[in-house]
Amino acid sequence: MAQITLDDLAHSYHPNPSGPDDFALKQLDMTWRDGEAYALLGASGCGKSTLLNIISGLLHPSQGRILFGERDVTNAPTADRNIAQVFQFPVVYDTMSVRENLAFPLKNRGMAGQEIAERVQKVAAMIDMEAVLDRKARGLTADAKQKISLGRGMVREDVNALLFDEPLTVIDPHMKWELRTQLKKLHRDFGHTMIYVTHDQTEALTFADKVVVMHDGRVVQTGTPQDLFEKPAHTFVGYFIGSPGMNLFDADINGRTARIGDATLDLGRPYAASGRMQVGVRPEFVRVGTGGDGLPARIRRVEDVGRHKIVRLDVMGVETAAIVGEDATIPTDIDRVSFVPEGINVYADAWRVAPQGETP
């Protein structure tokens, strides 16, 4: 196992990049701590797989260095990095049995037969394939083959890191939950450094100690699921994390007062920033009502999703969501919304601005 350090890393698929827009992965300095489980989260095309392939050695960066511990592996081939990588689509040997596929990485490293048998049996139980160990991989379903790929990634205990590139895409929903649980158990038992690429926020938030959110080739925030929910560092994080995502309102900010359209809002704490200013509030912190203080609103529809209701509103031309309890009675004459002060975030040019006096 090893700490992974990315030093001044960037990558372009253009031979002669002329500006930031030519880079699939923009300049990045980052440390992945030894033994932690990370999710690399973002929309398709944001640079997640590019970054993972640079770490694994499948792709050489345009600039910068990759360190495993103190060792510079920037120019080292994949085989010399001692990592295991599982791809989005299954990579198995069809002519081998499930048992032989799982044992293959261990045989390549000269492990003793009894150790191989014990390890294969343990991993087969984790991926629920004990009953088919002696079946050829050919003819198995796509999700069964992907479980073999996952098992091959997990079978070694001596790797520097385990890298997963959207590995559950072809797995049925129930098995996804089971395999995420097994991956978390594997991490607890063996303490591998794990990096799990996904565009699914549920997978990311339930798997990882830390979530790394990428947008447009750039890491915009690294933090715990609670960090991402309560203090999104970028408006993209607010939008991408949560269902529904964060509500955003263009605003003029003066100290602790925001002017949104013709209405004013007390932010609770003073802010000092310039640029395009926005107020962000998650639906969980929006309160709906009739009359009194707040921003003028008009109800559009109510969606009952079982565990709660989502009230969709028009707030001065901005489509806004509020979450209320499943048993709440929602009046049809709602004409105001207000915000829980602790749930308000302020953004300048899409980046979060800390209120004056906030402890980092």
Automatic annotation (TrEMBL):
One of its GO terms (molecular function) is ATP hydrolysis activity. Its EC number is 3.6.3.-. The keyword Hydrolase applies. It comes from the Bacteria. Keywords: ATP-binding, Cell membrane, Hydrolase, Membrane, Nucleotide-binding, Transport. SUPFAM superfamilies: MOP-like, P-loop containing nucleoside triphosphate hydrolases. It holds the Pfam family ABC_tran. It is an enzyme of class 3 (hydrolase). Gene3D superfamilies: 2.40.50.100, P-loop containing nucleotide triphosphate hydrolases. GO terms for cellular component: ATP-binding cassette (ABC) transporter complex, substrate-binding subunit-containing. Residues 4-241 form the ABC transporter domain. The keyword ATP-binding applies. Belongs to the ABC transporter superfamily. This is Trehalose import ATP-binding protein SugC. The gene is sugC.
